[in-house]
Write a structure and sequence with these properties.
Helix content is 51%, strand content 11%. The protein has seven helices and five strands, in the order H-H-E-H-E-H-E-H-E-H-E-H. It has a five-stranded parallel β-sheet with strand order 3-2-1-4-5.
């Protein structure tokens, strides 16, 4: 529907010029509308540059958790965003087998629970099911990160409960060392990295790193346009 909207806008811009040439509307009205259109193009260009600059040069190794953000699980579709994310997760786990995967995504419009379908794909590809946490309540990027954080906190609490041990020491007092901050990766497609990282920082994530999966070349421009509107929406709502 975005492109239908653009078609209407360009049709209207052409009509404005025609009305002005026929002296049916004043020049200032044409200039005002074209200034707004130029501003829109400028916002798109700036957003695209910000997205490009947010992409990591290398993947951060040895992360404690890797959050794979949910999307429509159209795994059979050519150029599937979801498949790109999952294949990138497999690549990362192959190099960092101790990292826990957190898959986030609730029930989509097709009635499928995104994270469950995505987890099944990883398991079929040989990823240990005990290495996967599944979050099924979220419906957008912000909720992905909110519920994933809650799931990781719950996992850590359960791990502490199940790891009871006694230190025996005959030499002297034992120095208590504070636990290091957990490192977290956020994995999503390249066009989505900027918004996901900004939301994570707004939610208080620390020690967080972007892990970028590629996206389809054919629809990349379309995804940039859609992402520009999404970023503006999140900025207006105070999510970033």
């Amino acid at each position: 529907y975005i492109w239908y909207g653009f078609a209407f806008v360009f049709f209207a811009l052409g009509k404005l010029i025609k009305f002005y040439l026929n002296k049916r509307i004043p020049l200032w009205s044409v200039v005002s509308v074209y200034t707004l259109a130029t501003l829109g193009v400028l916002i798109f260009v700036i957003t695209s540059i910000a997205i490009s600059l947010s992409l990591p040069n290398n993947d951060e190794p040895g992360l404690d958790f890797l959050i794979v953000l949910g999307t429509k699980p159209d795994l059979e579709k050519k150029g599937s965003e979801c498949k790109y994310r999952l294949d990138k997760a497999i690549e990362y786990i192959d190099n960092n087998p101790d990292t826990i995967i957190v898959i986030s995504g609730g029930i989509g419009r097709d009635g499928k629970t995104e994270s469950v379908v995505m987890a099944d794909y990883l398991i079929q590809k040989g990823i240990d099911r005990n290495n996967i946490l599944v979050e099924t309540q979220s419906h957008n990027t912000r909720e992905n990160l909110i519920y994933s954080k809650a799931l990781m906190d719950k996992y850590n609490e359960e791990m502490k409960i199940n790891t009871d041990f006694i230190i025996r020491n005959d030499i002297g007092p034992v120095e208590v060392v504070e636990a290091r901050p957990e490192t977290i990766g956020i994995l999503t497609n390249d066009f989505h990295i900027f918004r996901a990282m900004q939301v994570a920082k707004k939610l208080g994530y620390t020690q967080v790193s972007p892990i970028s999966a590629k996206s389809g070349n054919i629809l990349y421009l379309h995804m940039l346009v859609r992402e520009t509107f999404a970023i503006l929406k999140y900025k207006f709502l105070g999510y970033i």
